[in-house]
Amino acid sequence: MRMLNTLFAVRDLKKSLAFYQKVLGLEVVNDFGANVVLTGGLALQTLDVWAAFLGKEPEALRFGGSDAEIYFEAEDFDAFLKTLRTFPEVELVRPPLEHGWGQRVVRLYDPDRHIVEVGEPMSRVAKRFRDGGLTEEGVARRMDVSLEYARELLK
Known about the structure:
four-stranded mixed beta sheet; 155 residues; elongated
């Protein structure tokens, strides 16, 4: 068994597709009309078809839950934040933050209020700390990871 995709039901496929292409830079892998598969394993499904698959009315489905997110990494996190600022219509869950282990992230809502997290790759975090003067051991302590994992990140 292997996981293949994450699927989000969406109210407006064109609007959601534009969000994932323009804001996150994803590309269409397959377009089946009511279902579009994007790079990274994300699929978007029209609400009416999804509701029919579940045997429910579209009005029975709820959006905006805060119980899950999809996660992306941006090699250049600062450049992503700069790009994100060019989309004032994109609502943030909260402003960008730095977690205790040093990773910088931002969480935002897609057009249907699914939560999307974009984070700095852990290898970038480790290298940022090393470039700031920490030893391998210091990086491991700062990130609260094993020395072995810190060394792997620093390669």
